[in-house]
Amino acid sequence: MLSSPLRHIAASFKPRSVALASRNARTYATETKIPINIVEVGPRDGLQNEKGVIPVDVKVELIEKLALAGCNNIEAGSFVSPKWVPQMAGTGEIISRMHRLPDVHYAVLVPNQKGLDGLFSVLDTYNQSSHSESIPPPSDEISIFTAATDAFTRANLNTSIAESLVKLAPVARTAIDKGLRVRGYVSVAIACPYTGQVDYKKVREVSKELLEMGCYEVSLGDTVGRGTPTQVAEMLEEVKKDVPVEKLAGHFHDTFGTAVANVFTALEHGVRTIDSSVGGLGGCPYSPGATGNVATEDVLYALQGSKYSVTGTEYGKGSIDLDKITEIGWWISGKLGRESISRAGRALRAKKIRDAEMAKDGEVRAKL
Ligand SMILES: CC(C)(COP(=O)([O-])OP(=O)([O-])OC[C@H]1O[C@@H](n2cnc3c(N)ncnc32)[C@H](O)[C@@H]1OP(=O)([O-])[O-])[C@@H](O)C(=O)NCCC(=O)NCCSC(=O)C[C@@](C)(O)CC(=O)[O-]
């Protein structure tokens, strides 16, 4: 009889040909998967739209938890007027205080030069500190935003689309000159709460302009969550006439329950980056009834076993850990005084509770 450790080695031994075949099979499976990036926007797009204002400490903890779940792109907050969006006050403090991981991009939203100056002042303090050699910077990326209708741009930025582009171009240039990445958003890419159906040609034109001003990627927002897969496909076909699809990201809200279907439609049309929000946080202040972003849990769950694989840091074993994200979704929802609204998050939590009860039940029976 073999001793226990040797039995273990014997059990794991396979003839060389079998070992090679199974390694090749694993390599093949990994190589054929199409890598997808997730941009976790919960701390920004999610929390900015929640009624309750979350304390800085909790936001810091949220961002840290997300990075430890494997998220490699996190929108951490925004430097906007606190009169317009009080929920985002304290972003400078948050990005200075949070523990930052080297392989994670921490982005902040800026609407104008004043917002960029707010970020620069945080970065100046970091650069002057003695830790700047060893600790990653508070942020390496800004997101700028405009929209596909004048009415929405007026509501969100107090300008027309054309004026917003004129104002954003020097902001993007200055950020790039300082070594920051710049990402662009086009809101209301499908429907506008003020004007209804959107002209996709406008989405195409605005996306092109954002790329020309130096954005490395443009995220197309179904801000009010009204889009259907057919509309997403039509919109993307139009935008792709002028913009390489590798430069596009999909940003879907889930008001009508179509967000996961819209994610898959975007992926099938060549989009490789998806914005999502832990716990399905968020909404849209200009669109009554609009719900949050597609939940990160729902996207991760739906992508399982598909031809796509989600990229992430070593903390998510090269991906984003669905169980950890589910827990975070419940934790942050609890801080908001409610339950997670992610469908997958709710089902996974219920299963976990049921499994724990059954295990306990089993233990009790075993003792009887
Ligand atoms: C752009 C403004 C400021 C123009 O608003 P304004 O009123 O025209 O600006 P202003 O230049 O006249 O300034 C008004 C006051 O705001 C201050 N101010 C001015 N700028 C800043 C700043 N950066 N940070 C802090 N304070 C600022 C400024 O100093 C002044 O203060 P006061 O003199 O009255 O005391 C305003 O419209 C604004 O803050 N808009 C941001 C709205 C916002 O954050 N919306 C949500 C983000 S977009 C989004 O969620 C959609 C997206 C991206 O997720 C994709 C999708 O789903 O579609």
From TrEMBL:
Q: Alphabetically list the UniProt keywords.
A: Lyase, Metal-binding
Q: What is its EC number?
A: 4.1.3.4
Q: One Pfam family of this protein, by short name?
A: HMGL-like
InterPro entries named among the record's database cross-references: Aldolase_TIM, HMGL, PYR_CT
Swiss-Prot/TrEMBL catalytic activity:
(3S)-3-hydroxy-3-methylglutaryl-CoA = acetoacetate + acetyl-CoA
Q: What is this protein called?
A: hydroxymethylglutaryl-CoA lyase
User: Entry's NCBIfam families?
Assistant: PRK05692.1 (NF004283)
Q: State the pathway, as annotated in the record.
A: Metabolic intermediate metabolism; (S)-3-hydroxy-3-methylglutaryl-CoA degradation; acetoacetate from (S)-3-hydroxy-3-methylglutaryl-CoA: step 1/1
What's a Gene Ontology MF term here? Answer: metal ion binding
**Domain (Pyruvate carboxyltransferase) ranges:** 36-326
Family assignment from sequence similarity: Belongs to the HMG-CoA lyase family.
Gene Ontology terms describing biological process: ketone body biosynthetic process; L-leucine catabolic process
